[in-house]
Amino acid sequence: MGENPTKPYMVSISGKNIADNLQMLQKISSAIESGSVNIAAVELNLACPNIVGKPTIGYDFEQMEDVMKQVASLPCFSGSKALFPLGVKMPPYFDRPHFEMAAAILNKYKNIVSYAASINTIGNALAIDFHAEMPVIRAKGGFAGLSGSAVKYTALANVKQMRELLDKSIDVVGVGGVQTGRDAFEMILCGATAVQVGTCHWTEGPGCFDRICDELKAIMTDKGYDAVEDFRGKLKEWSKEGVALSRQMKMTSKKSDTGGEHQASSNNSSVIIAILFAIIAVLLAEKFNIVTL
Questions:
Q1: Contact 16, 45 (CB under 8 A)
Q2: Please, which residues have CB within 8 angstroms of residue 247's CB and are 6 or more apart in sequence?
Q3: Count of CB atoms situated within 10 Å of the CB of 244
Q4: Which residues are 196's β-sheet partners?
Q5: Which of 13, 28, 183, 272 has the fewest CB atoms found within 10 Å of its own CB?
Q6: pTM
């Protein structure tokens, strides 16, 4: 379990059934106790929509309650302090009652749940290969989880509502469509303690992490924030004053962009005019034998 025993790992697990999950948690516990690996945390996926024939645990609240009860009974969580921090990956919710039921279960087990990661992919998306006229992927008839920028707004709503409903001792990790520093800023503004980056890492590679962090730092500087805590969870209520400020900032930004484009256009025009004058001068010189070529 890991080639470098000193490197900290966050292990994500998603078994086909509760027995698989319990077994994996017990194996992780044994590895930690033996000192063979440095596991910083474990994330239990309650939201995987890709197991054929199996329901998403996070949508079946009776099953979710049973899973959490059995996990909490393991020796690694039965002492005064858990052997390792446990996070849970949550599915996207769309109705307020579902948010409330999910949060109530997690709050019941707040002694073992360190964080909730919202959201996992939106299930039952279908991408079509236009040329072959078939699904893009093979499994489950092509139906799979939707991720990336398409899920960002659903993710923001889930982060906001889970932060409102969960006990303060349970952190919320924002997941879904984080590709820029602005995306990370918005997640934190909604209450996220941290963010996860998946699809962007897949398409861009590990360089995306430093880029996103640098963009976030630039946003904080521009807005006058010295620390993340200055704006974490401080999403403001809608107001006419806010709309006016937003409109003003957009106009200022547009004028700035237009000014730069105008300056560049003027510079290009000057160069073109100078070249035309030079060509005309050469042609006139040749015609009137002012110079000998």
A1: no
A2: none
A3: 10
A4: 175
A5: 272
A6: 0.82
